């Protein structure tokens, strides 16, 4: 009968939905930066597991959750995951993606709105871990700090180390076979795909109209 608890329980499934979304996006887009983003999330989970098994701080109510895969709770993996995702997305929106058309106001507006939504979801998921008695406030706080630091470090690593290598990786035979592509030189892939698709559709429409005449 606890509606708030049920809602927060569903929100705590956010990491699962994000992973499924990434796998789906990679299958259909096959873009190297997206693959790197997912690699960062996986690496972040590995770091969380390592920290937990070094600190070995128990959860607040171990007996209340028999299905939990690990008895250690410092730091919260949900909090670390969500803050990694949110901070990395924030950096990507403001430092990697640049608008190429004249809609400057709308461009900034949707970035601000999306950033607020990302932070809100991260806060709610973090809070849900305390509300549902999976973690203490300190475990959630340190998880958020660890995830944020990991996101900044991985973004810098991707931009400075991996991105210059992406053209070479995309040219590998195996990358060409799986249609893996590099879009790092395109400032806004959404705008680019929209304009290219619209131009190609118009071109094909003109060709079709010529054939029918």
Automatic annotation (TrEMBL):
GO BP: any one term? lipid biosynthetic process
Gene Ontology terms, cellular component aspect? Answer: endoplasmic reticulum membrane
Keyword Endoplasmic reticulum carried by entry: yes
Membrane topology per the entry is: Multi-pass membrane protein
User: Could you tell me where this protein is found in the cell?
Assistant: Endoplasmic reticulum membrane
Transmembrane residue ranges: 7-28, 81-97, 109-128, 140-158
Q: What is its EC number?
A: 3.6.1.43
| Recorded superkingdom | Eukaryota
Role summary = Required for efficient N-glycosylation. Necessary for maintaining optimal levels of dolichol-linked oligosaccharides. Hydrolyzes dolichyl pyrophosphate at a very high rate and dolichyl monophosphate at a much lower rate. Does not act on phosphatidate.
Tell me its family: Belongs to the dolichyldiphosphatase family.
Protein name per UniProt? Dolichyldiphosphatase
- From which organism does this entry originate? Toxostoma redivivum (California thrasher)
């Amino acid at each position: 009968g606890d509606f708030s608890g049920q809602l927060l329980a569903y929100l705590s499934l956010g990491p699962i939905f994000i992973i499924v979304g990434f796998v789906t996006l990679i299958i259909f887009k096959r873009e190297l930066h997206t693959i790197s983003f997912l690699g960062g999330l996986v690496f972040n989970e590995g770091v969380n597991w390592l920290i937990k098994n070094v600190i070995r701080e128990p959860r607040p109510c171990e007996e209340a959750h028999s299905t939990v895969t690990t008895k250690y709770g410092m730091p919260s993996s949900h909090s670390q995951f969500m803050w990694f995702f949110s901070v990395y997305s924030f950096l990507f929106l403001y430092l990697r993606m640049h608008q190429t058309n004249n809609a400057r106001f709308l461009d900034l507006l949707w970035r601000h709105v999306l950033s607020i939504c990302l932070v809100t979801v991260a806060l709610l998921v973090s809070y849900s871990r305390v509300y549902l008695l999976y973690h203490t406030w300190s475990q959630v706080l340190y998880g958020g700090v660890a995830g944020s630091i990991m996101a900044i470090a991985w973004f810098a690593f991707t931009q400075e180390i991996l991105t210059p290598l992406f053209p070479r990786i995309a040219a590998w035979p195996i990358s060409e076979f799986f249609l893996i592509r590099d879009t790092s030189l395109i400032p806004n892939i959404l705008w680019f795909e929209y304009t290219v698709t619209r131009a190609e559709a118009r071109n094909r429409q003109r060709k079709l109209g010529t054939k029918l005449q």
